[in-house]
Amino acid sequence: MATAGKVIKCRAAVAWEPNKPLVIEEIEVAPPQANEVRIKIVATGVCHTDLYHLFEGMHKDGFPAVLGHEGAGIVESVGPGVTEFQPGDKVIPLFVSQCRECRFCKNPKTNQCEKGWASGRHDMMAPADSRFTCKGKKVLQFMGTSTFSQYTVMNQIAIAKIDPAAPLDKVCLLGCGICTGYGAAVNTAKVEPGSTCAVFGLGAVGLAAVMGCKSAGAKRIFAVDINPDKFGKAKVFGATDFVNPKDHDKPISQVLAEMTNGGVDYSLECVGNVTVMRSALESCVKGWGVSVLVGWTDLYDVATRPIQLIAGRTWKGSLFGGETHLSLVWILPNMNWGCGCVRVQMQISLSRQMVCSYFLHY
């Protein structure tokens, strides 16, 4: 391409400081260096984690930054040493890396990597190095991705090459929401056929978790949210029961215990709230109940009484649903992009994608 090896000037939504609106700016995107790939972003969604960094985490050293980590695009150029990608490839940028060489990559129990952006910088939510500049200042790449820019540069170990036929406006949701929720149910919780599940929070991640529970064969799936307008969407994804904590004068864990003869087999917290995390754990049946933390937060300690775990419950966390870029390569060719679940998932984030698309491309 004519732009290969050159600095690209493009538009991006820049977060100059915490708790302030994003500003559409012209930024400079440097050419890819060794083992890097420059990507033209075609579609992006908005995830709560973007808002968390801007309005909740607000780490002073995490700004200025270009947010966004749920995108899809086309390879514009590659740097020296890149052999798996070439210009024109359709790709999904990922906030999880896979170098295939470190002790984490070689262990099938995890999808984490020692060479990922989060190594020692999870509080700032960005690697120290960046290919972005704006008005003479370095601009950080949020979670190593920064999909709220028309172009971004990433290490090849954090990119998934996808089916050339995959629609980018849909597959961008695999960059976080769908994989995070679906994988948390299937890979992390390991939901079993005939089981009962409760999903707390019915955003894109929570709805994907509901879909994962259904795919795994759960018999009853409780959708828990304080917004009843979300229950219709949850039903499409497979939820069988709907519980609004505001409708009850007792703890939601007690409500679910009474509805399930002691508690659910699996619960997934998809909010990122430590109080909800405790409720999700205590909603599980003693002896074998499994509760998974899916929602992102690092602001407060999470706690429960020891007897909750002594009684046999398991409390665990899930990052990106345990998926890797290699699992995405397998998933994409096997997905039916015309099916109802994928269409609804697309509709959930469509309005948010249109906002980003409007500002970045017009």
UniProtKB/TrEMBL annotation:
Question: SUPFAM superfamilies attached here?
Answer: GroES-like, NAD(P)-binding Rossmann-fold domains
UniProt record, GO biological process? formaldehyde catabolic process
The Enoyl reductase (ER) domain sits at: 17-329
Name the Gene3D superfamilies on file: Medium-chain alcohol dehydrogenases, catalytic domain, NAD(P)-binding Rossmann-like Domain
Question: What keywords are assigned to this protein?
Answer: Metal-binding, NAD, Oxidoreductase, Zinc
What InterPro entries would the database entry show? ADH-like_C, ADH-like_N, ADH_Zn_CS, ER, GroES-like_sf, NAD(P)-bd_dom_sf
Q: Give the cofactors, semicolon-separated.
A: Zn(2+)
Q: Name one GO cellular component term.
A: cytosol
Query: Which first-to-last residue range defines the signal peptide?
Result: none
Q: Does the keyword Membrane apply?
A: no
Name one molecular function that GO assigns to this entry. S-(hydroxymethyl)glutathione dehydrogenase [NAD(P)+] activity
Superkingdom of this protein's organism: Eukaryota
Q: Which family does it belong to?
A: Belongs to the zinc-containing alcohol dehydrogenase family.
Protein name as annotated: Alcohol dehydrogenase 1
